Fold:
Amino acid sequence: MTSVHMRGLPHVDAVTPAVLVLPGPVSRGETPRLCDEVRALLESTRAGVVVCDVGGLGPPGLAVVDLLARLELTARRAGGRIRLRDPDPALHALLDLVGLRFETERQVEQREPPLGVQEAVEPGDAAV
Structure:
């Protein structure tokens, strides 16, 4: 019995998600059109994810939360989901407050270093 050993990585068909830029401010009347765009992007790309660029939405409010919830519901009904790109920290906090969780892109992590870890060591320091 013989097997063929292939060199390199196996072929992976990566699908790049579509991007929907949400210009701000968005009125309630635009929600159905944006939901239709999310549905169409999911059907045409078959990526399963639509990236919503929310960087230009402006100050967050409940209208923005309502829009994002409706876009997520539309995406879920079409077999996908949405991912937020460049969310304002205030929008992120507001979404947490109302209990909505979204996957995000380009989110800067700000964490403290673990306790007991030294960032710099001086010659002659004792090991801990």
